[in-house]
Amino acid sequence: MTTAIAIRPLTPDLWADFETVFGPQGACYGCWCTYFRLAAAERKLLGSAERKDFMHKRVDAGPPPGLLAYDGAAPFGWVQVGPRSELPGWNTPRTVARPLDPQDAEDPHVWAVSCFFMLSKYRGQGLSHAILQGAIKHAREAGARLLEACPMDHAKQAKSVGLYVGSTSVFRKAGFEEVALRKAGRPLMRLAL
């Protein structure tokens, strides 16, 4: 396990590092971290290359849509963190992540930690804790008043790519509290900043 982790906002000059973390396939089935960022109907029409292009344009437009984690100079991890309003997949009435108050979906001060991704050799080492701390710090410094997450209680393996939403225990340890449970094992959690 690494001991010198650095967390940096994903700015246009770090795009190549994002590509390194996501690999040639775009991480989870060519998602390029667009799962919550695009409405489902729109996302399904796009191939992996088009999702990558969408995300590249989003990064170029700023502000940073998330943070990269580094082991020394080597990028290895990602967390998507930003305003809920940028995540239509989080705000639909049928999703487990839907806001408690519908107005939160447009409030620029209500943020979400929606996705994690790490290179496989770094998974299962507890590094999500440090990455989440970076996300909390970033959200606080950007003026967020609430930070929400909708993690999962259990995955089949600690190294499972299915933990892209994060582990409930990691959020609980960081001080997040459950505010709703719409599906067993997938609590909506919140941290007041």
Automatic annotation (TrEMBL):
It holds the Pfam family Acetyltransf_1. SUPFAM superfamilies: Acyl-CoA N-acyltransferases (Nat). InterPro entries: Acyl_CoA_acyltransferase (IPR016181), GNAT_dom (IPR000182). One of its GO terms (molecular function) is acyltransferase activity, transferring groups other than amino-acyl groups. Residues 5-193 form the N-acetyltransferase domain. Keywords: Transferase. PROSITE patterns: GNAT. This is Acetyltransferase (GNAT) family protein.
